[in-house]
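Posted in: Protein Modeling Q&A

I'm a second-year student putting together a small comparison for a lab meeting, and my supervisor asked me to include a predicted structure for DUF374 domain-containing protein. I've never done this before, so apologies if this is the wrong subforum. The sequence is pasted below exactly as I got it from our records. If anyone can share the structure token output, I'd also love a short note on what stands out.
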Amino acid sequence: MQTAVGRLLAGYLRLVKRTNRFTVDPPDLFARLDAEAPYICALWHGQHFMIPLGKRPQDRYAVLISRHGDGGINAAACESFGIRPIRASGGQPSKMHKRGGVYGLREMLRALAGGDSVTLTADVPKTARVAGLGIVTLARLSGRPIIPAAVVTSRRLTLANWDRTSIGLPFGRGVVAVGEPIRVAADADAGALEAARARLERALDDVHARAYALVGGHDPGAALRPQERAA
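Accepted answer (user: helix_wrangler)
Welcome! Here is the predicted structure, written out as tokens:
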């Protein structure tokens, strides 16, 4: 059932892509990505339905998808776009022995070593807009840069859930936006990893704000930002 729903979702997303006038920001976005490939594409959780719209046919991607909940739907939709799903969970390195986290980390490292870029959410389930250490640990171990990204449409449905999931609607304008690469040294200690994690949070907030502004809107997930960081 989830596979069937996932394929329907992929068909719908193709309709959204065909009927929206997409631009990229910065204008040389794809040239920048090609120069950095393979890379780690980071997004906030609410973007997990939208990110396939930023893929070109020639791009090689794997994506980390949870083994639980609607993960089967997302996996089937991604496969329809030629994106290989890695069914596991990210999060904190100290918890990677749970929920297939070690397997997921190993498979993401293998994908990057083989030339595939890897997409994953920076925030962990139920803790929106707070980046975990898992993604910066992946960058440290792989030596590959993290690219903060957002895909936004002017007409969209925003769910009133924990991550303000965004689902694009047809017949509008769209933007694929990325921020500057974030690199993590192989010898990064705990302090350097925390600094990279905080830098990624700010970069993801910035790229989402920029993308929404370009389609004449406001980031609905900005209100989820923890008060201590907003201050």
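A couple of things worth pointing out for your meeting: The helical segments are 2-19, 29-36, 71-80, 101-113, 133-142, 190-214, 227-230. The chain has a mean pLDDT of 92.
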